[in-house]
Amino acid sequence: MLLTGRIKNNVPRRLLFIFEFLALFLLLIYEAKVPDLKTVLNALALLVIVYLSNLILIKVSSGDNYIFQIATMLVSIGAIMIYRMDPSIGTKQLAWFTVGILCFYMTYFLLKHIRIWDKITYIYIAMSYILFALTFVLGERKYGAINWIEIKGVSIQPGEIIKILLIFIIAGFYSNYEKYKRKKQLSYILIGIIYSFIGLLFLQKDLGMALMFYSIFISLQYIYEDDRKLILYNIGLFIFSAILGYFLFSHVRIRVETWLNPWRFINDKGYQITQSLFAIAEGGFFGKGLGLGYPHFIPLPYNDFIFSAIVEEMGIFTGIGIIMLFLILFYRGFKIGMNQENKFYKILALGISVLFAVQAFIIIGGVIKLIPLTGITLPFVSYGGSSLITSFIALGILQVASEDLESRMKIDEEES
Amino acid sequence: MKKKVKMPKENKRIITVLVALCSLLISLVIYISYFQVFKAESIKENSYNKRLWINEENVLRGSILDRNGKVISYSEKEDDKNIRYYPYGRLYSHIIGYSYRQYGKSGLEKEYNNELLDINETNALTEIKNLVLPKSVGNDLKLTIDHSVQEKSQSLLKGKKGSIITMNPKTGEVYSMVSMPDFDSANLDSEWKGIIESSESPLLNRSIQGLYEPGSIFKVITSVAMLETYGIDKNYLCKGKTTVEGYTFKDYGNGVHGKLDLKGGFKNSCNPYFVEKSLMIGKEKLGEVADKFMINKNIAFDLDVKKSKFDYKKAMGKTKIAASSIGQGDVLVTPLNMAMMVSAIANGGEMVKPILVKDVINKNGQTIKTNSTEILSQVSNNDAVEEVKEMMREVVVSGTGKNASIKNVKVSGKTGTAENASGKSHSWFIGFAPYDDPKLAIVVLLEEEGTTGGKGAAPIARDMLIHGLNNISFAEEKIDN
């Protein structure tokens, strides 16, 4: 049993390597000149990082081996595309990837060995508000939204950190639900806190993040809230605020208008989405080939529109592949959640899985014009430190949750 | 105990959320596949897609030549930019069209874009070839158009609205095709606003995109249907009008023709005659013959052609059938379709596919694509076609089309005066010459001209036929025979 399990484990890892090898080979030859040393080194670095980190994980963790492989596959696709568009940014992405993996292991060990995380919900709430306050005080307007702060030359996006805190807050609340339930109004207070987050994101014009916060909240509330009418209130409140937002804020109206008919605004408001659609249409099912498309015609091809850039050169089949990777990641995350006995980690696992699925849906749905476009990053694939690091932190939490924590705790208790 | 009761409910909810979010992700896959299959092609064509112009900058767009090799459009490189020239501005506005970054593409510039820029279906091999051997010059198009005939058509139609098409009834080669009002392909920047705002729709290629009531030229089809129907009495006594279910049909000029057979009815274009006979033919037969003349059918051409309409399959009252038999009522046709109709009569019943682009020639002078003559339809049996052909000769000799006659060439034809919603009739003439060995078929349509076909369109057709027969070299076609 053990043996066959191991062999099966190797198959996806090998496929990952074949993909990376072929893509990097294409990257090296597409300009039809002698491959430069820098690209060769970067390619080797990527292969080594991916190989080693996967190998170490098998030794370290008794939990799920696939989720990390899925993440490294997604990062590889993204990093190769980014490198092809701009080698210097691609090299940076590789550095962020390394930092991300370190953060993954750090999160993994911290969560596994320190066990106070479900008892400090108030601290998460306080930290979230402090981060919001910081954003408003130090925030910079970037691409229309004030969601970046710059500290000593490093841009960070506090919203990315708050979205993890949000999951901790909800998990902290519902894992202590039996205790809190006696005070009935506490569920209302939770709704109040989360809507205040959503409201603040709205004011920062960060609609994608607001939508994601709401999705995570409603999913977990649906699973754990005993007072079922609250869920209806929550949905009602969301619809009400969406309508209110549409009429109050012009930036919400623009999103909807450019979704319904971007071609009317092709020169200004609809420029981004139409350029994205051109890229996807040009890609076809098999893509133009790495290096043969024009991803630079798309605005923000490294960040929000990376999916369109990938589809143009690697084809819709690769696009579908990326969606499927998120689907498997999400499915495994939920399976991890269902198998986890410890309620706090169980909710964390579910919350993080919802996070990955919804974030992927919002941005991919946006760039293919299935839903209105709201700018957020595609987890693991898009360029950027904040996005990559928080994605890996979230993955680290999921990795911990995939292990049998209850029986371990019992052993710990017996030993002490 | 308590925990065990709760667990299944919690898991059920987890599965609900799992299914809901999986469906969202699957919907992405479905939508993106739908997008690729049904929408991508048309989106790619949008002129804001910068990728379309990448080739434009790297490849010198091919030239367009008339049948005698005269260059009627070309590109030149100036300061690293490729500039397109249309030396004859308005003359080819509806054939060549235009290729502008701001306004997109139309006409042959659009339909033959890939040939002009030498873009092939991409596959790995051609991609590699393109990388190694950068292309710089596109392919040329050699048209069937005769520049001097085109110029003559334009000058005769100047100031009017409508269309003139001349073509070879045996090979389908189009010698000229003019639609008025036109626009200047060379000066779109200054004219664009006026073109867009004009109520006369100058961008519309009336020859192939305009749908018109054919009026009496449709009697060609009605006559064929009548000749194919066994046992119809061809004699009739015309008293100037006839009434069908309370609706009175009479002639445009209120003439009384007296005793008539089919030949007399046709040459005098007697409406009461055809109205009475159409009720004996019936809509099914009339429709069946119309279909053979490519009415209700898509016509494959180098430019996009609208479908002519005669919806005989729906329920029709007697009045409607009668009106349709004289080209009013429910019949709408394109001038090109009428040119093909008259060509089929001239060509012994074989209707050929119209051709506008003869050859595609690459930069080394090799022909890489040729459009050759194709028979689309056998419109009727030989006897019926011969009889209609003779009747058409009579129209020009002693009937409504006398204005189209030429001293030493036998011209055949049919006039049409079509009433329409505007209150001013369309003036039609279709014809061919010489009668014994047809070389040139013609259709002239003057939109909302307010005169009869005999007065308005026939003299123009006459001038066109004289010019065409004198100037076109028909040598190639003779070798074919």
UniProtKB/TrEMBL annotation, chain A:
Localization per record: Membrane
InterPro entries listed in its UniProt record: FtsW/RodA
Transmembrane parts of this sequence: 15-32, 39-60, 66-83, 95-114, 120-139, 151-174, 186-203, 208-224, 230-249, 314-332, 344-368, 380-401
Pfam families linked: FTSW_RODA_SPOVE
Keyword Transmembrane helix belongs to the record: yes
GO cellular component: cell division site; plasma membrane
Domain of life: Bacteria
Bilayer topology annotation: Multi-pass membrane protein
One GO BP annotation of this record: regulation of cell shape
Keywords carried by this UniProt record: Cell shape, Membrane, Transmembrane, Transmembrane helix
An MF annotation (GO) of this entry: lipid-linked peptidoglycan transporter activity
The protein, known as: Lipid II flippase FtsW
TrEMBL record, chain B:
Biological process, per Gene Ontology: cell wall organization
Domain Penicillin-binding protein transpeptidase: residue ranges: 162-464
InterPro entries attached to this UniProt entry: Beta-lactam/transpept, Beta-lactam/transpept-like, PBP_dimer_sf, PBPA_dimer, PCN-bd_Tpept
Molecular function GO terms recorded: penicillin binding
Designated name of the protein: Stage V sporulation protein D
Domain of life: Bacteria
Residue ranges of domain Penicillin binding protein A dimerisation in the record: 61-132
Classification lineage: Bacteria, Bacillati, Bacillota, Tissierellia, Tissierellales
Biological source species: Tissierella creatinophila DSM 6911
PANTHER family: PENICILLIN-BINDING PROTEIN 4B (PTHR30627:SF24), PEPTIDOGLYCAN D,D-TRANSPEPTIDASE (PTHR30627)
GO CC annotations, alphabetized: plasma membrane
